[in-house]
């Protein structure tokens, strides 16, 4: 899949079946961060079963996912947009030397969710840096 992409596997909240979808990711402070458009359904399973796995550059990483919503996501979303300005451009969020426009970040937070995946202690810390959105 390459450096920018990973496969995330989640467990269905009602079915218990595994579902795998491609995502793009960013490494921030030892965790993986992925986004999903809010209308997508796969990420909702994390509320019921937060244990996930990521296939990143051929390595499987087990982790615990948490969903950041609303204002809790704004700071991390700003960090992601600052690290990957093309993502800010893709979403139409203005960015300057002070960082992303806070109003643009707040508007974007209404359209996407941030999923933070903390690798299990047995897994090594992530060392890759790429991000965009899953579609």
- The 3D shape can be described as globular
Number of distinct helices: 4
Global Rg: 14 Å
Range of strand content: 35-45%
- Give me the strand/helix succession: EEEHEEHHEEHE
Q: How is the biggest beta sheet arranged?
A: 6 strands, antiparallel, barrel
Mean pLDDT across all amino acids? 86
Helix vs. strand class = alpha+beta
How many E-type strands? 8
Low-confidence stretches: 127-135
Q: Helix share of residues? A: 10-25%
Strand order of the main beta sheet, please?
1-2-3-8-5-4
The N- and C-terminal alpha carbons lie at a distance of 15 Å
How would you describe this structure to a colleague?
By secondary structure, this protein is of the alpha+beta class. It is 21% helix and 39% strand. The chain contains four helices and eight strands; from the N terminus they run E-E-E-H-E-E-H-H-E-E-H-E. It has a six-stranded antiparallel β-barrel. A two-stranded antiparallel sheet has the order 6-7. Strand 2 and strand 3 (31-37) form a beta hairpin. Helix 2 crosses helix 3.
What key attributes describe this structure?
135 residues, 6-stranded antiparallel beta barrel, two-stranded antiparallel sheet, alpha+beta
Characterize this entry briefly.
With 135 residues, the protein is of the alpha+beta class. The chain has helices at residues 45-48, 74-83, 85-91, 102-109, and strands at 5-11, 18-28, 31-37, 51-56, 59-68, 95-96, 99-100, 112-119.
């Amino acid at each position: 899949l390459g450096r920018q992409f990973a496969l995330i596997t989640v467990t269905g909240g009602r079915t218990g079946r595994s579902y795998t979808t491609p995502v793009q990711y960013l490494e921030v402070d030892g965790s993986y961060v992925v986004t999903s458009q809010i209308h997508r359904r796969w990420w909702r399973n994390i509320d019921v079963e937060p244990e996930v796995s990521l296939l990143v550059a051929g390595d499987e990483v087990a982790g615990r996912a948490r969903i950041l919503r609303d204002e809790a996501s704004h700071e991390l979303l700003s960090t992601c947009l600052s690290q990957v300005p093309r993502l800010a451009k893709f979403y139409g969020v203005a960015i300057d030397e002070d960082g992303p426009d806070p109003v643009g970040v707040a508007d974007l937070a209404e359209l996407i969710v941030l999923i933070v995946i903390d690798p299990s202690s047995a897994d090594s810390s992530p060392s890759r840096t790429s991000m965009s959105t899953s579609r």
